[in-house]
Amino acid sequence: MATCTFCVGSTQLVRQQPLQNTLQRQVQTSAYDTTATVQKLRDQLRYYAVAEIAGRPFLITKNDKVIVNRLKDVKVGDVLKLDKVRELGSKDYTLKGSPYVPENVFNINATVIEHTKSKLIQVVKKKRRKNYKRTIEHKQTHTVLRISNVDVL
Fold this sequence. Notes:
By secondary structure, the protein is mostly beta strands.
């Protein structure tokens, strides 16, 4: 043990070494395990996915409407292929990626329905006793997506 130079009296600073024999959770994923899980998923009727759209995760299923922050590079009617999926599953089975599920396992498409704005948001800035008050009004732009299919290949 090392003595703390800033402490008064007999208080001592204890340095703890990390435990060498701690149990670590090991997840074994081999090609066989993945193909077996994918085969079990194929036998299910409906799927869900946790997909990243514009850097944010969304829980999606087929025919869902997803409202995301404005995507500048897309037009109404464009079809987007979602490739960053964290989790893919059904009622009985789940395939989790680390960090993402491989792209050759699934096919998820989304169609751009519209670009819209939110309702008017008013922000009031005020400083007390300074006779300062400002009202800022803002409408956030959004893109609405329709998930056209969630399939396991």
